[in-house]
Amino acid sequence: MRRTAKALVALMTAAFLVSTTACSAGLGGPASSRSAQDGVIRFTFAPDPIWDYMHDAGIVDEWQRETGYTIETSATWDEFGLFAGGHADIISSASFEVPGLEEQTRRETVIIGRYNAERSRIMVRADDPAQNLEDLRGRRLGVFTTVSGTLVWSGLVKQMHDMQLLDGDFDIVVADIQNLSNLLARGEIDACICYPDLSARELRNGAVRPLYDGKSSADLFAELNAPGHDGPMGNVFVARKDWVDGHPGEVSAFLDLWDRGLREWQTHRDVMIERYPQHFAVATVEDIEFMKDYVAAHDWVVDEVRFDQKWADDESSIFDLMRTTGVIGDEITDPKFLPAEGVHQ
Question: Angle 59-67/248-275 helices, nearest 10 degrees?
Fold first, then answer.
């Protein structure tokens, strides 16, 4: 978008690492080579604990028997590539990256469902007196990419402090997403845009702390721009518009399946963290217990996959923020949404 749009696809692999660090049990197999057909949903998704749980618990098989639909799945970090090649009907993406998805794949898309909020935090070492990003002017800020959540923080930094995140007010250090909080704890950077599920050890042992009262980019965006909103979304479900137009039954059934998954998350969240710790970048008993408590207090997964028009309008306001703060150009248009809250077929 603007300067970074051309780099978006190459960087998406790193962006999707916020979800996990290992392979998925339920999304195995190669991408479908077949063209779209009635009754079949080709779903490509980065490895995910809720999907693995539904697969292992037999929920996906039960859904297929009850609906008569088949879901062909594949696990990959390169969701954009499979989508561009015509091998997927539905993928996930951050909502604010969908215009880049359309530009790079040359496919018209529509957002059909929501999943989780953009959860990155600004973190500093525990002994650093900084209270906000303004106190960090000129210092080393670690990021894993100049797109993804960095786009949201760029807009927020300009709005809150009239500072440029990527254009001179910070010494930007690009590093591996899984190593940022460790680099911070060791003093090799002064702050980072970090994900809590990739910072469990350093948060647990008190080496680092989040600024802004622990609020995520989504929390601050809602507070400042869309009170009561739960976005912007780090992951939404995005589908080809032509496929959605021709397969309303499959779309509704897919959303029903994910609503079941969200209910399972709410009921069995601790079980999922224990069973699939790799998805939360934790391994030790101490870190697993910490992550359970942390997610209970800061759950970034939404309660329902469907949304109404007001939610779509609020989610679109992230583009208003990024345009008014110069993060993206005025030529970038909002993504298309398919409000379906309360619609079940």
Answer: 170
- Tens of pLDDT, residue by residue over 51-66, are 999 999 999 999 999 9
State the CB neighbour count (10 A cutoff) for residue 298. 17
CATH superfamily ID and name for 121-225: Periplasmic binding protein-like II (3.40.190.10)
Say which residues have a Cβ less than 8 Å from residue 255's Cβ, sequence separation at least 6: 112, 113, 237, 305, 306, 340
- Global pTM reads 0.86
**Residue limits of CATH 3.40.190.10 in the chain:** 2-118+230-324, 121-225
State how far the Cα of 304 lies from the Cα of 115, in Å rounded to an integer.
Answer: 8
List the beta bridge partners of residue 122: 193
The beta-carbon contacts of 199-204 under 8 Å, at least 24 apart in sequence, are 199/123, 200/280, 200/281, 200/282, 200/287, 200/290, 200/291, 200/294, 201/282, 201/284, 201/287, 203/290, 203/294, 204/286, 204/287, 204/290
For domain 2-118+230-324, say whether CATH 3.30.70.2740 is its number: no
Task: Give the tens place of pLDDT for each residue, 63-95.
Answer: 999 999 999 987 766 676 777 777 789 999 899
Token digits of residue 135? 């106190």
- Tell me how far apart the 2 most distant CA atoms of the chain are, in Å: 59
Q: Rounded to whole angstroms, what are the CA distances from 306 to 66, 77, 110, 251?
A: 20, 24, 13, 11
How far is CA 74 from each of CA 20, 64, 79, 271, rounded to the nearest angstrom? 15, 16, 9, 24
Name 169's Cβ contacts closer than 8 Å, sequence gap at least 6. 137, 138, 157, 163
Two structure tokens written together for 185: 């704890």
